[in-house]
User: What shape does this take?
Amino acid sequence: MGGSSRLAAAAVVIALAVTACSSDGGSSPATSQTPSSVVAAGELPMIDAIGVAMKALDAKLGGPQQYFEVNATSQLVNLFVSLDNGSVAQPWVYLDGALSSTEGQPASGGTFAAASVDFDPKVVLAPLLTQMPGITIESFYIHGDGQGNVLYGVLAQSAKGGGLDIVVGADGAVKSVDPVN
Assistant: This one.
């Protein structure tokens, strides 16, 4: 998924999260805030929940899955599972220990398995936060590179307000920074 695709997917996933949160007809205080306002309050993406979410979904679906993308916000983890030999992406939301999904949509792109994910949640954001003071991190993402490998990145707002797509290594080293609209 490209930068604009990730942003579009993030908008869809936020809508899914609101739907998942309000399935009982109510809305929790967390869902009444926008992700930007929550992150601006100092919360970082729940990257430590990514492994837990992937294990839970692999178990629910009966074994290791191929993923187009997995991303985390300060409230939830989004998982895009590859179906039908990579022609469909089924979005899942992991929120408060529970999984929910919606119907898949046509897709293409690189995929990866949970076993390929090897970042340290305690380390991966540290260099970025040190090198870019004042940055607001909206989400941390992992996606396939088309060759079975994973790429890590962050969608953020600069201190000046511009959107940034920042590719990082498993150790948090900043590899590239691209503006996004």
User: Anything to note?
Assistant: Residues 3-180 form one domain.
